[in-house]
Amino acid sequence: MRHRLLTAVLLLAPLGALAQSPLEAGPLADVRVEGNLRVESTALLSEVRSRAGSELDAERVRTDLQALWSLGYFDDIEVVLLSASEAGLEAGAGSVLVYRVKEKPAVRQVRYEGIDELSKDDLDELLEVKTYAILDPSTIASSEKAFEAKYREKGFYLARVNHRIVPIEGEASVDVVFEVNERSKVEVKEIRFVGNHSVSEKELESVMETREGGLFSFFTSSGTYQEEAFERDLMRISAVYYDRGYINVNVGKPRLALSPDKKYLFVTVTVEEGEPYTIGTLEVSGDLLEERDVLIGRMSQEPGELFVRSKLGEDIMALQARYRDEGYAFVQVTPLTQVHPEEKTIDLDLEVRKGKKVRVERIEIHGHTRTRDKVIRREFRIDEGDLYSGSRITLSQQRVQALGYFENVELSTRPGSADDQIILDLQVKERPTGTFQVGAGVSTGEGLLVTAQIAHDNLFGRGQSISFQWMFSKLRNIFQLQFMEPYFLDTKWTFAFGAQNTRSDFFNFIRSSRGGNLTWGYELVDDLRVFGTYTLEDVNVSASDGAVDSDFYGGGITSSLKGTISYDTRDNRLFPTRGQYHTLSAEVAAGKAPLFSQNKFQRLSLVSRFFHPLPFGVVFRFKGELGMILGDEDEYPGSERYFLGGVFNIRGYPLRTLSPTRKMPGGADPLTSTIDFPVGGNKQAVFNLELEFPLLPPVGIRGVVFYDAGNAYATEAPWFTDEQYDLPLGMFHSVGFGIRWFSPIGPLRFEWGIPLYRRLDRNPQDQRIRFEFMVGNAF
Fold it and tell me: How many CB atoms lie within 10 A of CB 27?
């Protein structure tokens, strides 16, 4: 006879009822699991407490059921008690306890139906359901929520995702099908504010991430409503009021209303402003490093002024920075406030608890596989054993980032072996610093431009840079080799050398040269270096028009010595977004000892570059360059003069065509008529402004708009005046746009310049718009 004890009954049955069962009394002969296909029986039995040889115990069986059910593998579990004969054992052997399970099906595959605006890859990134895993309803539900959130992020606020399970006939598996109803995209049509009396809607909207949709919404992603983004917007709106003294402002949750056609979303934000508060008293208390009045003098706020919360944050950080630079790494500054509603004032007391002085126990660097440890450590401005210094640690991180070898540089701290010790952890992620590139393009004026370059900015991980470049067009033929060691023999000395063989067509003459240079430099203080460069080259100049005396352009040996001082605070030397870079140099090529130069000149140059990040990934860039050749005009050769125009300085104008002119014979016969002949200037001024912005960040494509201005000036002409053309500030001007691709083989520039002044009467090469192509950075 066989007795079934269904699970529900067993869970309610008392122990006495089981003891009176007509089955064979005594210990259990065996405990089994049946019905399992994918999960091993031994693994399941290890989860239960009932064992062969033990007495049947209802409470123990109840616990076993809960343990098996909690594994999540089964749709149903049935408990069956068999007699010995029913279980295939000898009579009298005892009863057999059997757990009969029905396994959940496995997921064979996941499919999507109804997707159009998003790709399968977009959803796969969020999918929690795994193929060949046991079906888990919780992962299906969480995947649906993630999909709907992704659609809301893209502006499909009404999108809904459901699922269905499709059993596979003859298999213990199913397909999971997500059914997507994308519906139409919902655009934020209007954002309204209610209760904002002291701050205009325009100012509040300017700080928000959520924007009203417009004509270019498809390009800028404006008009998209995201709940998380709007939560941040509410905090930003509150911050605007906090910075105007409204300490009791209340920004309510937005009210959302759909248009009848469900295409547009109207957002209403309610603001309860309250009253503005001024600062009553301002104190600093606690552990004071300096006199109270000195510390208060460092504050950006004063009693009687309108309370500005952002300034309070700045004052707290300034105090913390002051203490951290003295070794107090764990200083705490707590703002204690007392509000006086009647007077509408707030008293501030910044309480300082400095804690213990802390020293740097170790500096640990992680993530670098190619770059040698010393290349990173020599950029640190704090050493192991030094007192903690917040500013020196920040400077160290900035200097490592500025190397340009790493995509990410993160510096964090953790406790050391004692409470007065700290460990600095630097985590870096290396970027490729070696490039091999071959490119070709077409440029107006230069025709076909072919380039090839092999370069490495971190040679063998030693921090050295080396490059070999070849560039060929109908106006240029350049071979160039350069090498630099920024820390020669691990000292502050810089060593560099270069060699080149060039040929450049200046339209009226062709300048060919071959030679090299040798540079030594020294770091005076952080970011400030001096250099000395000796250049030796053999210059050959040939006039394009036989009527022009080639002696005017010079030729022969150039032996020069140049001194340079540079100041560099760029955050990244390869792709800067912040900081500045200035160089001031003086170069002398003299005929006397020790230089014995055949080409003689003295040249002064000043180059300044500024970089500043703006919102939304935009980078503002400015470059200014001034140059001047000194001495008698008859002494220095024409080939050393300034000829501007082209992608390197004034875009939109033909290469090297911006130059003062001189009346010269127009043919071999000196009696023929004269022409305006470009002779170059002894002074130059160039200014470039750029706004660079992301277009396709994942593949490194950025856009740029620019404004260029500059000119080359004749010897007798003052700066920023031009007698030949009626030019504003004596400079040629242009605007334009372009695309830059920071490709795996190097930076590629595609730019279109639009000259704002065309010299059609004197230079027929001027065009309404000029395309330029270049390999390499402009700044």
Answer: 14
